[in-house]
Amino acid sequence: DAGVIQSPRHEVTEMGQEVTLRCKPISGHNSLFWYRQTMMRGLELLIYFNNNVPIDDSGMPEDRFSAKMPNASFSTLKIQPSEPRDSAVYFCASSLTLRGILHNEKLFFGSGTQLSVL
Amino acid sequence: QKEVEQNSGPLSVPEGAIASLNCTYSDRGSQSFFWYRQYSGKSPELIMFIYSNGDKEDGRFTAQLNKASQYVSLLIRDSQPSDSATYLCAPTSGGYNKLIFGAGTRLAVHP
Asked: I want to staple B106 with a disulfide (CB 3.0 to 4.6 A). Which of A110, B10, B64, B91 is the partner?
C-alpha cells in the first residue's frame, strides 16, 4: 500500500489567497484526521471524519477553515482567505476504524504539507 | 492548563544511557496512551502504546502509566544516536477516542 498520500508537499502563497490541501487515506481505512503542527502549538487536531462524516470539528481555528470528505478515498482542507499565522505543517492521518484507537490501532500519517503564507 | 504537557527539551543523554521522557494529561477519561516518534522533517510514527497501569516493555522501550496521577512516561534503554528525535505523548480523549498530542520532547543522544 502507498500509505496516506498528501498533496502538495509544499505550498507557498500570499495572504488572502485560497489554499486547498488534499489527502488520500489508506484504502479500507474508515477514519481520517487533519492535524496542524507548529513549533509554538505542537500537533493540533483540527477535524476528523468517520465513514466520510465529520465527527468533531472543534479544533478548526476559524470559519476560514473548512474540510470535506466527499468519498472514502479523498479529503480536502481549505483555507480561505489564508493568513501568515496559518503557516504550518498540515498532516493528514487515517486509521482502520475510530473505535479501534481504544484497542491500540495506530494512526498512519501522511508526509505532510508545508504551508507558507507570505 | 494544556491537555497534554511534556517538557520540550532538548533532553541530552550520552549513548548507552537511559532516556526518560515524561507526560502528564488532564482528561481523566483517557483510556489509551500512545508514544509517537517524529524525526526532523518527517511524520510521526507509533512506537508504543499502553492502557493498563504499570509498565509495558517492548525491546529497548518501556512505557509506564499511572492513571491516578495522570502520568505516563517512556524509558529508552541503551540510547542510540538514531533515537534522537521528538517524542510525542498522545492520550485518547473524547467520546470517539480521538488522539490529542503533546508538543513533544526533543531527545538528543550524543556519542
From this structure: B10
Q: Which of B42, B96, B103 sits opposite A98 (nearest CB)?
A: B96
Does residue A104 have a pLDDT over 80? no
The Cα–Cα gap between A33 and A29 comes to 11
pLDDT tens per residue, range B93-102: 865 568 889 9
pLDDT digits (tens, 9 = 90+) for B27-81: 888 888 999 999 999 999 999 999 889 999 999 999 999 999 999 999 999 999 9
Q: Residue A56 and residue A48: Cα distance in Å, rounded? A: 6
Grid coordinates representing A111? 508526509
> How far is residue A41's CA from residue B8's CA, in Å, rounded to a whole number?
11
List C-alpha distances in Å: B28 to A12, A31, A53, B96.
41, 24, 27, 15
What is the distance between the alpha carbons of residues A61 and A46, in angstroms, rounded to a whole number?
A: 8
Taking CA–CA distances from A31, the nearest residue in chain B reads B98
Closest-CA distance of chain B to residue A116, Å: 15
CB contact under 8 A, A107 and B46: yes
φ, ψ dihedrals at A92, nearest 5°: -110, 140
